[in-house]
Write a structure and sequence with these properties.
Blueprint lengths: L13 H11 L4 H8 L3 H8 L9 H15 L3 H11 L12 H24 L2
Length: 123
């Protein structure tokens, strides 16, 4: 009888994925820095999955693709792994402001008052 309880290997974090390719291809951190124009701090932070030290998503995705290209890894896979670890914040619906409601109420009152005045003036 087959046992279907085989463990699925855990997907690596984005930085670990890139570091693995860099080491496998004998590429130094300095070489990555030179090729990508990123600081050593940035490359080390990426490889350490240190989200707090990294820039906003738009810029970071570009950095991940560039580092991946230098290391021989798949840039889209690196970005995908990043997004799995740090999904984008869901967009919240825009809440109507209290000022907008106040303006709407004032407009209704003015229109209603004008309509009543018009009705009594011509009755």
């Amino acid at each position: 009888m087959d046992d279907h309880n085989e463990e699925v290997p855990e997907r690596p974090y984005f930085g670990s994925y890139l570091k693995e390719f860099r080491l496998k291809n004998n590429i130094s951190v300095e070489s990555v820095c030179e090729a990508t124009k990123l600081s050593r701090y940035m490359v080390v932070s990426i490889e350490a999955n240190d989200r707090g030290a990294l820039p906003e998503d738009v810029l970071l995705k570009s950095f991940l693709r560039n580092v991946a290209a230098v290391c021989g890894a798949d840039g889209d896979m690196a970005v995908s792994l990043y997004l799995e670890a740090y999904p984008p914040a869901s967009e919240r619906p825009v809440e109507k402001s209290k000022m907008g409601r106040l303006c709407l109420m004032l407009c209704l009152i003015v229109c209603l008052t004008g309509g009543i005045a018009f009705f009594f003036k011509f009755s």
